[in-house]
Amino acid sequence: ELRPYCYKHKITYLQYQILAVLFEDGALTIGDLSEKMSMDTGNMSAQCKRLEQKGYTLRMRKKFDERVVDVSLTRSGRLVIAELNDVLNKRYKTKWNNLSEEEKEKLVDSYEIMKKLFTKK
Protein backbone atom coordinates (compact mmCIF):
# COMPACT_ATOMS: atom_id res chain seq x y z
CA GLU A 1 0.00 0.00 0.00
CA LEU A 2 1.22 3.48 -0.88
CA ARG A 3 -0.52 5.28 1.97
CA PRO A 4 2.52 5.33 4.32
CA TYR A 5 4.72 6.69 1.52
CA CYS A 6 2.16 9.35 0.61
CA TYR A 7 1.94 10.28 4.29
CA LYS A 8 5.74 10.51 4.48
CA HIS A 9 5.71 13.06 1.64
CA LYS A 10 2.58 14.81 2.96
CA ILE A 11 0.50 14.11 -0.13
CA THR A 12 -2.86 12.46 -0.65
CA TYR A 13 -3.35 9.49 -2.95
CA LEU A 14 -5.09 11.83 -5.42
CA GLN A 15 -2.05 14.11 -5.37
CA TYR A 16 0.17 11.08 -5.99
CA GLN A 17 -1.95 10.26 -9.04
CA ILE A 18 -1.58 13.82 -10.34
CA LEU A 19 2.19 13.62 -9.91
CA ALA A 20 2.23 10.24 -11.65
CA VAL A 21 0.36 11.62 -14.69
CA LEU A 22 2.78 14.55 -14.91
CA PHE A 23 5.71 12.15 -14.57
CA GLU A 24 4.41 10.01 -17.43
CA ASP A 25 3.13 12.76 -19.75
CA GLY A 26 5.32 15.74 -18.92
CA ALA A 27 3.99 19.26 -18.45
CA LEU A 28 0.26 19.68 -19.04
CA THR A 29 -2.24 22.49 -18.78
CA ILE A 30 -4.68 22.40 -15.87
CA GLY A 31 -7.42 21.69 -18.43
CA ASP A 32 -5.57 18.76 -20.01
CA LEU A 33 -4.67 17.33 -16.62
CA SER A 34 -8.29 17.68 -15.47
CA GLU A 35 -9.51 15.89 -18.57
CA LYS A 36 -7.00 13.06 -18.21
CA MET A 37 -8.06 12.49 -14.62
CA SER A 38 -11.78 13.20 -15.16
CA MET A 39 -11.75 16.00 -12.58
CA ASP A 40 -13.25 19.46 -12.44
CA THR A 41 -10.71 22.14 -13.40
CA GLY A 42 -11.36 24.08 -10.19
CA ASN A 43 -10.55 21.07 -8.04
CA MET A 44 -7.50 20.27 -10.17
CA SER A 45 -6.26 23.84 -9.88
CA ALA A 46 -6.58 23.67 -6.08
CA GLN A 47 -4.72 20.34 -5.93
CA CYS A 48 -1.92 21.66 -8.15
CA LYS A 49 -1.64 24.76 -5.97
CA ARG A 50 -1.20 22.54 -2.89
CA LEU A 51 1.42 20.47 -4.71
CA GLU A 52 3.25 23.65 -5.70
CA GLN A 53 3.23 24.84 -2.07
CA LYS A 54 4.91 21.54 -1.14
CA GLY A 55 7.52 22.07 -3.85
CA TYR A 56 6.43 19.17 -6.09
CA THR A 57 4.99 21.09 -9.04
CA LEU A 58 5.45 24.39 -10.78
CA ARG A 59 2.55 26.34 -12.27
CA MET A 60 3.21 28.85 -15.03
CA ARG A 61 0.71 30.99 -16.89
CA LYS A 62 0.96 31.05 -20.68
CA LYS A 63 2.16 34.39 -22.02
CA PHE A 64 -0.29 34.36 -24.91
CA ASP A 65 -3.27 33.65 -22.62
CA GLU A 66 -2.91 34.08 -18.86
CA ARG A 67 -6.03 32.00 -18.26
CA VAL A 68 -4.08 28.90 -19.37
CA VAL A 69 -1.77 27.43 -16.71
CA ASP A 70 0.92 24.82 -17.38
CA VAL A 71 1.81 22.41 -14.58
CA SER A 72 5.10 20.54 -14.48
CA LEU A 73 7.04 18.50 -11.96
CA THR A 74 9.92 19.96 -10.03
CA ARG A 75 13.01 17.92 -9.20
CA SER A 76 11.44 17.15 -5.81
CA GLY A 77 8.24 15.97 -7.50
CA ARG A 78 10.20 13.65 -9.80
CA LEU A 79 12.09 12.23 -6.80
CA VAL A 80 8.85 11.52 -4.92
CA ILE A 81 7.34 9.73 -7.94
CA ALA A 82 10.55 7.78 -8.54
CA GLU A 83 10.46 6.55 -4.93
CA LEU A 84 6.78 5.61 -5.04
CA ASN A 85 7.16 3.90 -8.43
CA ASP A 86 10.10 1.93 -7.03
CA VAL A 87 7.90 0.77 -4.14
CA LEU A 88 5.21 -0.37 -6.60
CA ASN A 89 7.73 -2.06 -8.89
CA LYS A 90 9.24 -4.04 -6.03
CA ARG A 91 5.80 -5.04 -4.76
CA TYR A 92 4.49 -6.29 -8.10
CA LYS A 93 7.67 -7.62 -9.73
CA THR A 94 7.47 -10.92 -7.85
CA LYS A 95 3.78 -11.30 -8.63
CA TRP A 96 4.42 -10.54 -12.31
CA ASN A 97 7.29 -13.03 -12.45
CA ASN A 98 5.03 -15.75 -11.02
CA LEU A 99 2.61 -15.43 -13.94
CA SER A 100 2.86 -17.79 -16.91
CA GLU A 101 3.72 -16.28 -20.29
CA GLU A 102 0.13 -16.87 -21.40
CA GLU A 103 -1.22 -15.01 -18.35
CA LYS A 104 1.17 -12.11 -18.98
CA GLU A 105 0.04 -11.84 -22.60
CA LYS A 106 -3.63 -11.89 -21.58
CA LEU A 107 -3.01 -9.22 -18.97
CA VAL A 108 -1.17 -6.95 -21.41
CA ASP A 109 -3.88 -7.47 -24.05
CA SER A 110 -6.58 -6.63 -21.49
CA TYR A 111 -4.69 -3.51 -20.46
CA GLU A 112 -4.47 -2.35 -24.08
CA ILE A 113 -8.22 -2.88 -24.56
CA MET A 114 -9.01 -0.95 -21.37
CA LYS A 115 -6.64 1.83 -22.36
CA LYS A 116 -8.45 2.24 -25.70
CA LEU A 117 -11.80 2.13 -23.94
CA PHE A 118 -11.01 4.76 -21.30
CA THR A 119 -8.65 7.09 -23.17
CA LYS A 120 -10.35 10.16 -24.52
CA LYS A 121 -9.43 11.08 -28.08
Would you give an account of this structure?
The chain has 121 residues and is mainly alpha-helical. Helices cover 67% and strands 10% of the residues. It is built from six helices and three strands, in the order ααβααββαα. It has a three-stranded antiparallel β-sheet with strand order 1-3-2. Helix 3 (30-37) crosses helix 4. The protein starts with a helix and ends with a helix.
Give me the secondary-structure topology.
Layout: H1 3-8, H2 13-25, E1 28-29, H3 30-37, H4 41-53, E2 57-61, E3 69-73, H5 75-97, H6 101-118
Antiparallel strand pairs: 1-3, 2-3
Quote the beta fraction: 5-15%
| Anisotropy-based shape | globular
CA distance, first residue to last residue = 32 Å
Distinct helical segment count: 6
Task: Produce a short descriptive summary.
The chain has 121 residues and is mainly alpha-helical.
Features:
121 residues; mainly alpha; 3-stranded antiparallel β-sheet; 6 helices; 3 strands; 67% helix; globular
